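Course exercise 7: structure representation. Students receive a sequence record and must write out the corresponding structure in token form. The form below is the worked example handed out in class, using Cell shape determination protein CcmA (135 residues). Read each field label carefully; the graders check that inputs and outputs are placed in the correct fields and that the protein name is recorded exactly as given.

STUDENT ID: A-19
EXERCISE PROTEIN: Cell shape determination protein CcmA
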Amino acid sequence: MKAKPNNVTVLMPGLVVEGNMILDHGLSVFALANGDIISTEGLLHVGAGGIVKGKVQGEIVRIDGLVEGDVHARDMLEINGRVLGNVFYCGTIRLGQQAALNGQLRRVSRELVIENARAERETAPERLESQGAAQ
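STUDENT ANSWER:
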């Protein structure tokens, strides 16, 4: 069996990303991301100094920076940074000593989180088209 490549995208400090992102691999954010982020596989990491202003959804989610929006983790969630929004998780959760959470913490079934991600993916092209028409 062929090993699957371990792809990771890194957004470095000083970068500003505008718009939603949907990835089929891991992501580390040390930049400012204005928009929702969905990672269907791998680790979605908001690093120290990284800021996401939007929803974050991933299989494995680690937050060492700041997320201003809801967080959805399908497997494992680790928070050492700050979350200003609600947190939905399916598997395990770990809150570090420096974790700050301003929102509700809810354990939900995996199906709810996956359906949420599918709905976001399916409507993303429509939103892009309507935004382009408005400009």
